[in-house]
Design brief:
The chain is mainly alpha-helical and 71 residues long. It contains three helices and no strands. The mean pLDDT is 82.
Length: 71
Amino acid sequence: MIREFLNILSEWEGTDEKLRELIKEISPDYQPWFSSVFYPSNELMTFFFTLQAAIGAFILGYIIGKYSRRK
């Protein structure tokens, strides 16, 4: 079951991949100025996304809680 889920996730393309494909269509001989030093795995990217969502939810919850106590 977990492998099926990971296969579904791997089929999704991010905007970075779509942009690379578009650039190749427009200008096939384009060379990037630099390349990334850090290439996280899919699991690490999922962790970063989840961490970002959790931090955002915490901040939003804190603000809503703070303003709801004022009234």
